[in-house]
């Protein structure tokens, strides 16, 4: 009663295909794929932005240290 056999899943899949049709399912799959690609692209852009901020702050810290040592 707790688990489903392969036949249960086949019947569920068949009912879904009959209700929505293959064209709508194909479009939904394409939309889902585009959403995942967009999400990954956003994550990568955020990481690139953070790396840029870290690099610029480390460069500023180095130049401040050099100015302190030059003024002594």
Q: How does the major sheet shape up?
A: none
Q: Write the H/E string, N to C.
A: H
Share of residues in helices = over 70%
What is the radius of gyration computed over CA atoms, rounded to a whole number of angstroms? Answer: 27 Å
Q: Gap between N and C termini, in Å?
A: 80 Å
Number of DSSP helical runs: 1
Briefly note the structural class of the backbone: mainly alpha
Mean pLDDT: 82
Low-confidence stretches: none
Number of strands: 0
Proportion of residues in β-strands: under 5%
Shape: rod-shaped
Pfam families: TatA_B_E (PF02416)
Organism: Pseudomarimonas salicorniae
Transmembrane segments: 6-22
Biased composition (Polar residues): 53-72
């Amino acid at each position: 009663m707790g688990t489903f056999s392969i036949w249960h899943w086949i019947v569920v899949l068949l009912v879904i295909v009959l209700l929505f049709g293959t064209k709508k399912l194909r479009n939904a799959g394409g939309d889902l794929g585009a959403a995942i690609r967009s999400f990954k692209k956003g994550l990568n852009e955020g990481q690139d932005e953070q790396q840029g901020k870290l690099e610029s702050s480390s460069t500023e810290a180095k130049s401040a240290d050099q100015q302190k040592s030059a003024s002594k």
